[in-house]
Amino acid sequence: MGADPLEPGRLTVGIIDDHPVVIEGVQTWLARDRRIHVVHVADTPENVPAGIDVLILDLSLHGRLVLDELARLARRPQRVIAFSQFTEREMVLAALEAGACEFVAKNEGRAHLLEAVLTVVADRPYVTPTAAGVLVSDRPAASCRLSEQERTALLLWFQSMSKASVARRMGVSVHTVEMYIKRARVKYAQAGRPAPTKADMLARAFEDGLIRPEEIVGYRSSAALPGAVPTASPEPVP
């Protein structure tokens, strides 16, 4: 069994912001919790070391938005928290759609940032007041916004592929596939529409139009018998 990331000093965090005073402030906030160890600070999203549990990323660096870099970093195993002074609806939704696990406004302070860090590493839902206001007003049906990687992982998984097969198809690790699935589950829980089983998740994806029924064609491995079409089973989402 792997080490608990919430043991003292085990939860590793990176901070990317182009204002030194913000980095120093966030470091001070996080240093008050003995479970957290800041291992990387930078003013650009390049050269982020592997193995970080949570990355806190400012969405505007040196005068430009970094949503593309957010999406790139979200494809890695670490969880990404968008941390921004820009709280417009479109910005919040764009960050979540790009793969951010949480959105924390800079004016929401230490308590919300710390809680976001501790919950995302445990794959539990947490919504700040800023994000909650946007999500509630997004669409009446409280539909869920998944990143392209999350949607792809779910689609392949729904086609009865094993997670190992999904990982090979996407060119990522099994751990990363599990992270995409867990992240989608957390987003549905945040929207008030929990999906604890694979069948529940499939139903939610159909309801939101994220996946069309004709896309679930049934995956056949090279060892499958002729005419056999596996179906998605209602196994719990790990």
Description:
The strands form two sheets. Strands 2-1-3-6-7 form a five-stranded parallel beta sheet, with helices on both faces. By secondary structure, it is an alpha/beta fold. The protein has helices at residues 20-31, 67-74, 89-98, 109-120, 129-138, 148-158, 163-170, 174-190, 198-207; strands at 11-16, 36-42, 54-58, 60-61, 64-65, 79-84, 102-105. The radius of gyration is 18 Å and the shape is globular. The chain folds into two domains: 11-138, Response regulator (Rossmann fold); 148-215, Arc Repressor Mutant, subunit A. The protein is built from nine helices and seven strands. α7 (163-170) crosses α8. Residues 219-238 have low confidence and may be disordered.
Main sheet characteristics: 5 strands, parallel
User: From N to C, what is the helix and strand string?
Assistant: EHEEEEHEHEHHHHHH
Helix content: 40-55%
Strand content bin: 5-15%
Q: CATH superfamily name of the largest domain?
A: Response regulator
Overall pLDDT, averaged? 82
Shape category: globular
Poorly predicted regions: 219-238
Remind me, CATH topology of the largest domain?
Answer: Rossmann fold
User: Major sheet: order of its strands?
Assistant: 2-1-3-6-7
Number of strand segments: 7
Radius of gyration: 18 Å
Q: Could you provide a short overview of the structure?
A:
This protein has about 240 residues and is an alpha/beta fold. It has two domains: about 10-140, Rossmann fold; about 150-215, Arc Repressor Mutant, subunit A (Orthogonal Bundle), CATH 1.10.10.
